[in-house]
Amino acid sequence: MDDMRIVERTVQSQKSKISAKGVQVYYGTTHALKDVDVEVLENTVTAFIGPSGCGKSTFLRCLNRMNDTIPSCRVEGEIRLDGENIYDPRVDPVQLRAKVGMVFQKPNPFPKSIYDNVAYGPKIHGLSRTKAELDHVVETSLKKAALWNEVKDRLTAPGTGLSGGQQQRLCIARAIATSPEVLLMDEPCSALDPIATAQVEELIDDLRKSFSVVIVTHSMQQAARVSQRTAFFHLGNLVEYGETGQVFTNPEDPRTESYISGRIG
Amino acid sequence: MTDVSAQGPLPLSLLTKDARMNRRNSAETRFRFYGLAAIGLSLATLVFMLWTIFSDGVSAFFQAKITMPISLSAELLDPQGNRNRAEMTKVTTVGYNKLLAQAFAAELAARGIDTAGLKASEITALISKDAAGDLRASVLANPTMVGTTIDVELLAAGRVDGYFKGRVTRETAERDNQISPAQLDLVDRMDEAGLLQSGWNWSFLTNPDASDQRPEAAGLGVAILGSLYLMILVALMCVPVGVAASIYLEEFAPKNRWTDLIEVNISNLAAVPSIVYGILGLAIFINFMGFPQSSSLVGALVISLMTLPTIIIASRAAIRAVPPSIRDAALGVGASKMQTVFHHVLPLAAPGILTGTILGLATALGETAPLLLIGMVAFVDNYPSAPPDGFLDPATALPVQVYGWAQRADPAFIERSSGAIIVLLAFLVVMNVAAILLRRRFERRW
Ligand SMILES: Nc1ncnc2c1ncn2[C@@H]1O[C@H](COP(=O)(O)OP(=O)(O)OP(=O)(O)O)[C@@H](O)[C@H]1O
Ligand SMILES: [Mg+2]
Which of A25, A239, B6, B19 could be cross-linked to A33 through a Cys-Cys bond (beta carbons 3.0 to 4.6 Å apart)? Predict the structure, then answer.
């Protein structure tokens, strides 16, 4: 744990972007998340850490209602985005997902060209009026995702033909192309080499200027490097949530401490 | 299959095989042999089947024909002399028969072919009974021909054709009241003189069915057209409904008891014997709704009913095979359900849906039993008119034609029946090849 530099970046904003209260998630009869309260702040990177199967992805998927696609999944409690309950029956999840983008745990590019992968979101949301504008969005998104240099000569090649790490960065580019307000990233760097990881981390820090970012990671170092706030999940419970520096150096709960120091998980 | 249980000691060297390894290897060898044997057996059956069909049926595509000049005498065919079509229709095939008989006798005499001992009627019997009608139709279509001499190719009678194909011999002719050995002698002489030759027979593919006495004139024209109409209608009815239903069931329908019930029902419907659909079609479409009997529309409705479950099952399987991660990806960037399905799921499922649909249609093409019940087995010798009206005209279909011909007494029809099977198989092969090509064309990896 020596290389764990806690970033001195303090949370600049205290304004809440997403506030979750008393969230319970059930898969059929399995109680996957128990009474989770989390505030995601604006212009902040929030990291979710915890052992495998503790419900990090589940919670992340609650934030843009991707859980709606799982028939057995039931979400209780209240999640507010800018003060509006996203589980209100009047909310159209499609509109929500345009605001809350997501990068999935497994890279899942469309079996289309690299260009079409990135351009798809802007196209369906009508974000760019001309081809030139769309080209520009594709280029900046790919650049932000640190993929541009590798693919600029073969934008028409299929996105599925890229390597795993490149595919994941393509998915990141696809997610940021729609300029969401919140970006949810489920282990975005698990398939990336250290260089690409550093680039993505830089991107995340960059994105923080305009969006809130929520990132699930198994790398304690990464959580420490990029995030300002950290939530530690264990067996479906939110054990600890606070400033990253606080959680890593001076955890309140003994479970957090043992997880960070590698004793559970 | 039991190779994991017992624990033996590991072999000492990699270069020697232990007993267990030997047993495993020989089990594998045996299994390969069984597989090969199974494939060999099915191939042999297939080859045998094709061989019988082709050896019986290829000859249907060839036909003995008589080529000779006929002078279309104006006083016989157009007594008024004004080339008025309406007037000329008063001359029936009897008149044309007379003309043919005269021309034939004249041609035989001109070529110096000896017809001694044969009556005039026995000589004209060598020409197909269909020839006069054919000639009349072509004269009426082009009245200016009257008065000229034209070269015509006339179908030889079925027995003469059979003699060329080895089906009719002098022994059978002894017992046959349609042909005698003396007539066959004349046929031999005509053959020597070059008056008679066997050639490729397009009319087998274009002619309508013919009556029992004229096997040589019977063709598949109406059946091919009927099958084509059937396929068009079935595709038009089944593909949109089937694909829409499977998209709804896979992507939109909630998973509850109702959809389970529907699912079970669809699987059961796919297993219902086709004749039951025929009875249903007879009761509903013909008796209750009053659609015309024997029409390709009713046939298509009935066949659609039985093809639809197959198409739905195949399409659902294709849609289900699209990885869920693709749907997540599309939904995750804010696509609606509809956009997800039409932009991503459907293009990926298209090859599977297409293959399933074409195979479903291919089965439908060969379907016979329900068509028998709704009257498409009737003897139809008029072509159905062009669509859409033609869909209501009586028609028949290839498999039904096969069945119909196989039931006729004259062995010449057995040959035709096998020929029709060859045409049917050709259609099926074309459809299956199309399925494979489309699949290749659309297939993408993800
Ligand atoms: N679709 C599902 N159906 C049923 N149970 C599920 C489903 N998805 C997740 N679960 C269960 O919910 C719990 C939390 O899963 P989740 O995917 O959120 O874990 P995670 O923290 O993301 O783990 P990892 O770090 O391995 O990705 C697990 O016990 C899992 O078995
Ligand atoms: Mg996960």
Answer: A25
Give the Å distance between the CA of A85 and the centre of ligand 1: 24
- Does the beta-carbon distance from B446 to A125 stay under 8 Å? no
Decide if B112 touches A, using CB distance below 8 A: no
pLDDT recorded at residue B46? 95
What are the residue ranges spanned by the domains of chain B? 61-201, 221-442
Residue with tokens 């998973």: B255
pLDDT for B315 equals 94
Tell me the chain A residues in contact with residue B339 when contact means C-beta distances shorter than 8 Å: 124
How many angstroms away from the CA of B3 is the closest CA of chain A?
Answer: 35
What is the complex's ipTM, to 2 decimals?
Answer: 0.88
B162-190: pLDDT as tens digits = 888 888 888 887 887 778 888 888 888 88
Q: Are B247 and B350 in contact (CB under 8 A)?
A: no
Say how far apart CA B305 and CA B255 lie, in whole Å: 25
Q: Which residues of chain A have pLDDT under 70?
A: 1-13, 263-265
CA of A82 to the centre of ligand 1 (A): 27
Weakly modelled stretches of chain B, pLDDT under 50: 1-3, 446
**Are B333 and A120 in contact (CB < 8 Å)?**
yes
Average pLDDT, chain B: 85
Subunit contact B332:A160, Cβ cutoff 8 A: no
CATH 3.40.50.300: does it fit domain B221-442?
A: no
Chain B residues close to A171, C-beta within 8 Å: 329
pLDDT of residue A4: 46
Lateral strand order in the sheet of A73-81: A84-85, A73-81, A16-27, A30-41, A237-243, A229-234, A45-49, A212-216, A182-186, A100-103
A70, A92, A106, A110: best mutation site toward chain B, by most B Cβ within 10 Å? A110
Positive or negative: CA dihedral B19, B24, B28, B34: positive
Residue reference for tokens 């297993």: B271
* Alpha carbon B319 to its chain's center: 32
pLDDT at A238: 92
What per-residue confidence (pLDDT) applies to B445? 52
For residue A211, give how far its alpha carbon lies from the nearest alpha carbon of chain B (Å): 16
Tens digits of residue pLDDT in A170-203 = 999 999 999 899 999 999 888 788 888 888 888 8
* pTM assigned to the model: 0.81
Is A175 in the B-facing interface, judged by CB distances under 8 Å? Answer: yes
* C-alpha separations of B289 from B47, B91, B199, B293, B394 in Å: 45, 42, 47, 11, 17
Strand order in the sheet with B196-200: B149-155, B62-71, B196-200
Q: Give the best residue of B255, B333, B341, B343 to mutate against chain A (max A CB count within 10 A).
A: B333
Centroid of ligand 1 to alpha carbon of A33 (angstroms):
10
